[in-house]
Amino acid sequence: MLITRRRLMATASAALAATSLPRRGWTQTTLTLGETEIITLSDGWLDLPADMIFGPMPQDDLAPVLAQFGIDPTAPLTPPCNLTLLRRGDTLALFDAGSGTQFSPNAGALPEALEAAGIDPFDITHVIFTHGHPDHLWGVLDDFDEPYFANAEHMMGGAEFDYWMDDATVGNIGEARASFAVGAKRRLEVIESGLTRFGDGDEVVPGVAAVLTAGHTPGHMAFLIGDGADTAMVLGDAIGNDHVAFARPAWLSGSDQDAGAAAATRMALFDRITADDVTIVGFHLGQGGIGKVEARTEGYGFVPMT
Ligand SMILES: [Zn+2]
User: Fold this and answer.
1) Can you give the pLDDT at residue 121?
2) Mean pLDDT of 290-306
3) Total count of domains within the chain
4) What is the pLDDT of residue 11?
């Protein structure tokens, strides 16, 4: 067994922690595709100003859409964060690593969700990133700045990795996201030596193919999981919420770094997902994030599995 400082600390304080720490809320949703098991675990949620998503949208048309979903545009948004685990044979792959403890007060609950699901982080074989934003990447290191999933192979799309490692990114990403760039580079430097880069269409683990879905970030990747006729797609943030992104996929969203490219990607994905009846697994979609897409008179609707 690999000994890390975190494991020594955890062993020493386990008895105390078990009795003194309140358990945070978590959810778990499971989908089985042939021999592949897909599980989503909650990392908690983010607290965002609503404007961060809705700012660029046509405000007069937006109001009735938000009303339909019961969203108050003057209140903060609290999008859930779902981490996806894939178990097949000897593979126990985690898509994204969560927020960790340094990004957002109500996110970073993955360690407790894993424990509740009976999964040891040391048993994770692969950590496969959709993109380098903090809620997806920053949980990759523990509080000692060592890899949290110490035995895992870390994998990221080559274009995405290069973007966050580029010294120029912090200067051109914009003030609102400058801390994202600093935080990503610092963490990627720690895991860089063992990191595997992949490209569009590559098989990252058996039965799982990368799908370039650029726009939210320059090298964002989704993942198509195929098992016979049944397929599922881990979307990351290519479809970033279960309300406006579905109801009006063409609208530009403030959460996407290249909003035009992201809208084009989103619409192409909806076409593909509905044509092939793909089950979707979304990082910020509600009720565990696993479900189907239904075409509506205008736009689409999310039909959660649970
Ligand atoms: Zn995200």
Assistant:
1) 97
2) 95
3) 1
4) 53
Q: Residue 24 above 90 pLDDT?
A: no
CB 234 within 8 A of CB 285: no
- Give the separation between CA 54 and CA 282, rounded to whole angstroms: 19
Surrounding residues of ion ligand 1, Cβ less than 5 A: 135, 237
* Contact assessment for residue 286 and residue 240, using Cβ atoms and an 8 Å cutoff: no
**Structural domain for 202, as ranges:** 25-304
Question: Residue 150 Cα, ligand 1 centroid: separation in angstroms?
Answer: 23
DSSP code of residue 26: -
Position 293 in a domain? yes
Q: What percent of the chain has pLDDT over 70?
A: 91
Does the structure show a pLDDT above 60 at 292?
Answer: yes
Encoded tokens for 83:
């981490």
CATH number at residue 171: 3.60.15.10
- How far, in Å, from the CA of 51 to the mean position of ligand 1? 16
* Ligand 1 centroid distance, CA of 256 (Å): 10
